Amino acid sequence: MSNINEGESVGIKGILKDRGEAKMDNGKILIVDDQFGIRLLLNEVFKKEGYQTYQAENGQIALELAGMHSPDLVVLDIKIPGMDGIEILKRMKEIDPSIRVIIMTADGDLKMIHKAKELGALTHIAKPFDIEELAKTVKEILSDKILEKM
Fold first, then answer.
1. Which residues, at least 6 apart from 62, have a Cβ–Cβ distance to it below 8 Å?
2. Has residue 99 been placed in a domain?
3. Phi, psi dihedrals of residue 105, rounded to the nearest 5°
4. 39 inside domain
5. How many domains does the chain have?
6. The whole model's pTM is what?
7. CATH code assigned at 136
8. What is residue 107's predicted lDDT score, i.e. its pLDDT?
9. Among 4, 33, 41, 130, which one has the highest count of C-beta atoms within 10 angstroms of its own C-beta?
10. In which domain, by residue range, is 134 found?
11. b/e for 88-104, b at 16 or more Cβ within 10 A?
């Protein structure tokens, strides 16, 4: 067991790993967004719903965490400096073709949304998003995943 406290950054790259108490096993979610505030908000919402969460601020960290923790769902921002969301999605699908991904976008770029869906993204959420709608979508997707495992 590590000495990581809840919400504490791990390493210099700012990987955040949630370590809540007595969590239900509702699934693992990887949150990928370059905006700290978005990651923090989603982490709190998903944690409250009983999910184990991991956070990444860029593509390299996202790929490392996906490889280490095999998340049940990735909530991925499309517009990330450096390796953009499309490239992250491509690489995640190469690692695990069955990985489930929801993309988030602020600009509504239809070409990019279409490309992400061609690559296997399940749906997209427009920013600013309705947090309750996003939580409902996540719950539906992960409920389906749990049923598939039975």
1. 30, 32, 56, 74, 76, 88, 92
2. yes
3. -145, 140
4. yes
5. 1
6. 0.80
7. 3.40.50.2300
8. 79
9. 33
10. 9-149
11. bbebbeeeeeebbbbbb
The secondary structure of the chain as a DSSP string is ---PPTT-EETTTTEEE---SS-----EEEEE-S-HHHHHHHHHHHHHTT-EEEEESSHHHHHHHHHHH--SEEEEES--SSS-HHHHHHHHHHH-TT--EEEEESS--HHHHHHHHHTT--EEEESSP-HHHHHHHHHHHHHHHHHHH-
29, 51 in Cβ contact below 8 A?
Answer: yes
* Residue segments in the chain with a per-residue pLDDT below the cut of 50: 1-23, 146-147, 149-150
Asked if residue 2 is part of any domain, the answer here is no
Q: Are 118 and 86 in contact (CB under 8 A)?
A: no
Say if CB 88 and CB 57 are below 8 A apart.
Answer: no
Would you say residue 1 lies in a domain?
no
Of 40, 36, 41, the closest CA to residue 58 belongs to 36
